[in-house]
Amino acid sequence: MATRPLALLLLAACAAVPARSEPFPDAIAEALAAMGIAEKDLGYRPLAHWGRYPHPRTIPHVLPFFEDLHARPLDTYGFARTLGNAVDELLQPAKLREAPDAKDRKESLFRLGVVLGTDRLLGAFRGYSANLDPQPWDREPLLHACETLLERSGKPLRRPMSFGAQFAKEEPSPRAKLRTEVDKVPGPLQLPLARLLLNLIEAREWIDLGLRDVPFEMRERLFAALPRLLEETPDGMGYDPVFDDIAKGIDGPSLYYGCLKALQAVQDARREVPEGGHPAFVFRLDTPWGAVRFDNGAEEFAEEGPFLVVDLAGRARGPLGATAPRRSLSVALLLAGAGGGKAPLASGILGCGVVYAAGDAGSSYATDRYGLGFGMFGLGALVDEGGDDSYEMAAGGMGAGVFGIGLLLDAGGNDAYRLLEGDGQGFGGPGGVGVLADRSGDDTYFAERDAAKAGRADYHSADKVAANNAQGAGFGRRGDGSDGHSWAGGLGALLDAEGKDTYEAGNFSQGIGYWYGTGILWDGRGDDVYESVYFTQGSGAHFAIGALVDEAGNDRHTLLENAGAGLGFGWDVVNALLIDRGAGSDRYEAKIISTGLAEVRSNAFFLDEGGDDTYVLDAGTKGFGDVDERKEYTDPPKTSTASFELTQVGVFLDLGGKDAYLRRPKEGEPAPDPEAGDNRRWNLRARDPRAAGGFNVSFAADVEGGKARFLVPWPAR
Ligand SMILES: [Ca+2]
Ligand SMILES: [Ca+2]
Ligand SMILES: [Ca+2]
Ligand SMILES: [Ca+2]
To answer: Which of 80, 181, 240, 267 qualifies as a FRET site for 627, CA 20 to 30 Å off?
Structure first.
């Protein structure tokens, strides 16, 4: 009795103190409480004594972030958002062109290379500076830079002599000949080009240091193995030890320091070379590292294996920014945009390949395989400043990395990306990071889904649909069914910051993880259309992470054909997330097993923050926040424990708006789901306190005005 006045007093005191911020019920906390678990119970922390579990300790090439992100699935949002923020901040045409000042070197390409690439692949750098300091001579800087290049690459200026005399006396000296060639380059261009050459010499030296334990024969073997690699890898067929052999010999920090220097050197040169009005000229120099060509001529040209091409007139054709067994660095700066044609482009295999296309003209890029931003034991980057561009290739690129980093960075314009087979548009193969980043414009991303055209027929769709492994796809090599050589998948991210975009693909696409891979599709703004088929749109299979994050707009997500395993679907120890932020009115349509569904021990989340949404699933299929039930969850298999000890969570949350939850019967029109609806809860499966094994829980709710605390620190876009 005596306590009552005190309690009232305390209540009054609380009421008098203005709250610092409006408290709100956290929809995630409520879901966790209802399921009887805590946030720390989400995700996976596997133990190596479980039988049959491919523990990360036994899988080579696991990326440094993977285990921690696999343990904390809700952190996937911040992980994706920070990648997207980097694109939003740094990949603006103005930022690429902006001159540095005394306080800030404004090295946006270096920083993008770090945030999107090296930080996720190996750590090592934290984005301060590429530390370029080229030191050209005051007089005749380009002549001296060329001489330095010839010396460092092993062909110093010398002429044949014998008996103390030279024989072809009438010839000018080698320096005089080089000076005549250098004199063709207009004066104002000489200093910036000298600085670029000197920077690239240093870049190449670091790259070669990084590859010092990779003999030439091994490099040739790797190039010879490329034609079979992509299709053989995911299911572990056709093991070629050359990849493991080379991986053992790589000095990552040296290799990528050189790559980052080359990347930034190109942006520096783009800013330093004065624009327009130069007389026509062609400068050529052969070196053991490949040809150097500065060209402002009227003729189209192609160098077979260039070290550096600077093209001022848009005439460059042929291989550009593409490495070879004896050419570990190749760079092209295209100051009048890319001229077209089909050729090896922006491919960094055992080294670094960079293509930078400046200006606002539309460019068309075409290659066959391994290009348009492909990296393997190195970095391949294609950077396009602006214009409405078209990109087309078969496989292995448009931001694809396999044991390396591939970046396709497009800063502006309405662009069309066409991938005719797969493994691209943000593809992280084994030990790789691949990012397609597009800063603005209304873009179309197309990956051919018809297996009759693309090959890669996937049995999940009766061999009619291609397994594209594209548009934010992280893919490993699972050797557990064949030769035992497993390679952890990498990070594949498709990051589009602005615009009304269309994403079309077949199977294994649009935020998909496979075998230690992490696949992210992040779209920052606009009304977007997502069309794909199976294992797609925030999905994954076998020890992986897949997420589709859409920050704003009225979006349409449609699964076609057999239309399943998507929209937040996990299969076999996968964190799968579909997160749609903002108040957009969206439509999500699938046929089977989709929409916040966890199977074979997964963590699946579907979260839509607001708007009047429509959800469509076939009648009688699992979805809308659910889990499967299997005997091994309650009864340990006789010879292993993993499937018994592992946990599983399926969550569906719609946090506002007037929504329609529809089920499509075999015949007739879709009808409202009997359980799901506005301001309802359904599919609650709480933790069984008597269970000895891992929990198997689910929760689904439509919450008017609900909030998810883990999203609140990140401002709406
Ligand atoms: Ca664009
Ligand atoms: Ca968009
Ligand atoms: Ca959107
Ligand atoms: Ca919505």
So the answer is: 80
Q: Is 508 left (phi over 0), alpha (psi -120 to 50) or beta?
A: left
Which of 655, 444, 624 minimizes the C-alpha distance to 529?
444
The pTM (predicted TM-score) of the whole model is 0.96
| Tokens found for residue 265 | 């050197």
Please report how many Cα atoms fall inside a 13 Å half-sphere around the Cα of residue 4, on the Cβ side. 1
> Which residue, chain included where needed, has tokens 């010499």?
201
Distance CA 258, CA 263 (A): 9
Q: What is the pLDDT of residue 12?
A: 43
DSSP string, 180-209: HHHTTS-HHHHHHHHHHHHHHHHHHHHHHH
What is the pLDDT, as a whole number, of residue 16?
45
Question: What's the token pair of residue 262?
Answer: 């080359």
The pLDDT score that the predictor gives to residue 166 is: 73
Strands 444-447 and 502-504: parallel
Token pair recorded at residue 82:
């920070």
Residue with tokens 């395993």: 565
End-to-end CA distance of the chain: 53
Extract the residue ranges of the chain whose pLDDT is less than 50: 1-19
Predicted local confidence at residue 133, as pLDDT: 97
Ligand located closest to 582 CA: 4
Write out the residues surrounding ion ligand 3, Cβ under 5 A.
Answer: 528, 550, 553, 555
Cα distance between residue 87 and residue 511, in whole Å: 17
Residue 541: what residue type?
A
Q: Distance from the CA of 457 to the center of ligand 3, in angstroms?
A: 30
Question: Minimum-distance ligand to the CA of 553?
Answer: 3
pLDDT of residue 330: 98
What is the whole-number distance in angstroms between the Cα of residue 527 and the centre of ligand 4? Answer: 11
Alpha carbon distance 231, 69 (integer Å): 28
Q: How far apart are CA 444 and CA 427, in angstroms?
A: 17
Q: Which residue has the tokens 């550009």?
A: 320
Closest ligand to residue 554's CA: 3
Burial label, 651 (beta-carbon count in 10 A; 0-12, 13-18, 19+): buried
In angstroms, rounded to a whole number, what is the distance separating the alpha carbons of residues 376 and 246?
A: 11
Which ligand lies nearest the alpha carbon of 444?
1
Burial, 504: exposed, middle or buried (Cβ in 10 Å; 0-12, 13-18, 19+)? buried
> Which residue is associated with the tokens 């749109």?
537
Q: For the beta carbon of residue 664, count every other beta carbon within 10 angstroms.
A: 18
Ligand nearest to the CA of 442: 1
